[in-house]
Amino acid sequence: AQEIANYAGYDQPDAVRFLCGFGQPMEYDAPILTDWALMQVWAPMIRVLADGFQVELQEITTEVDKRPLEKNVFVEGMGDFETGSQGALRFEVKGIVNGKPLLVIEHVTRIDDDCAPEWPKNSPEGGFHNVIITGDPCLTVSVHGEDSIDPGAASGGNFTAANRIVNAVIPVCEANSGIIHPLDLPTNLGSSQIKQ
């Protein structure tokens, strides 16, 4: 699974600057890029995928890369991001099966599209999410969500992610007490969204 985004359109300046580290010196330890955060936020989804595919994980590893801005950038609502400060981040959380990375979550995020030009790019504007299945045949499913109230790919992606949680409230409340595995929840078909 892959997210490619430009956070210039993400209306959360503190998260962009201090959680993700954009505009900070390159040696700044962005909280979201720590091994602890990656293992707490994204590794659980690797475990869910492994359970769904019925494969045994040997380990989960992380890899992080950052790139500096090569020019000054001004972002409306966030201010200036200076040359040499962090302008892009990329991380992978990998589920290793039989010695190979079988299940991978990758984020490529920039504050300016010109930063880290060799990394995967935004298209359409603002960002998108991919599910990439490498095999025979190779398949890529791309999702670009936009919300009518809060335009932009960031909001569309957040609403898409929240949709699963919101629609799980009733089944979780109706379930027996204890831990519920995400794969035990019913599929949300979205039929209530079809207006006739």
Topology:
Blueprint: E1 2-6, H1 13-19, H2 35-41, H3 43-53, E2 59-68, E3 73-75, E4 79-81, E5 86-97, E6 100-110, E7 127-133, E8 139-143, H4 153-174
Parallel strand pairs: 1-6
Antiparallel strand pairs: 1-7, 2-5, 3-4, 5-6, 7-8
Strand content: 25-35%
Number of helices: 4
Mean pLDDT: 89
For the termini, the CA-CA separation is: 33 Å
Q: How much helix, percentage-wise, in residues? A: 10-25%
Instruction: Please tell me the total number of domains.
Output: 1
Basic shape: globular
Which residue ranges are poorly predicted, with pLDDT under 50 across at least 5 consecutive positions? none
Order of helices and strands: EHHHEEEEEEEH
Cα radius of gyration in angstroms: 18 Å
Number of strands: 8
Instruction: Please list the strands of the largest sheet in the order they lie side by side.
Output: 2-5-6-1-7-8
Biggest sheet statistics: 6 strands, mixed
Classify the secondary structure makeup into a structural class.
Answer: alpha+beta
Task: Explain what this protein looks like in three dimensions.
The chain is of the alpha+beta class and 196 residues long. 24% of the residues lie in helices and 29% in strands. It has one domain. It has four helices and eight strands; from the N terminus they run βαααβββββββα.
